[in-house]
Amino acid sequence: MTEEPTILSNKSNNIDTRDLTLHFNHDMLVVHRRYEVVSIINDVLIGIWFLIGSICFFYSSLMSIGTWLFVIGSAQMLIRPVIRLTRHFHLKRLPQPSGDF
Q1: Of 89, 92, 86, whose CA–CA distance to 39 is shortest?
Q2: pLDDT digits over 41-76, tens only?
Q3: What residue intervals traverse the membrane (predicted)?
Q4: What's this model's pTM, rounded to 2 decimal places?
């Protein structure tokens, strides 16, 4: 039997709130968490490269290093969608959980 999402109505400002429960198997959750951690680490590194690169631009002797850090940060921004796409394909290869969503 398929369970429909519960629709709660907030009559004071006419907003519908929908509650939806998704069931994931253990493998899907593990894969999702691993890619989430990789994505967070990538985002932190992007921030570090751009912050240090920005500081380097205050000093003319470090401008070349700052430029390279911007290039590295920009390359890592391209890694973001690759991580998401890889996670998507990894999850597609896993067996689907039994039962309806």
Answers
A1: 86
A2: 999 999 999 999 999 999 999 999 999 999 999 999
A3: 37-60, 66-83
A4: 0.61
- If one compares 39 and 4, the residue with the highest pLDDT of the two is 39
Tokens 């996670």 -> residue: 87
Q: How far is CA 55 from CA 14, 60, 72, in A?
A: 49, 11, 15
**How far is it, in rounded angstroms, from Cα 93 to Cα 20?**
24
DSSP letter string, the chain: -PPPPEEEEETTTTEEEEE------HHHHHHHHHHHHHHHHHHHHHHHHHHHHHHHTTSGGGHHHHHHHHHHHHHHHHHHHHHHHHHHHHHHHSPPPSS--
Are 99 and 24 in contact, with CB atoms under 8 Å apart? Answer: no
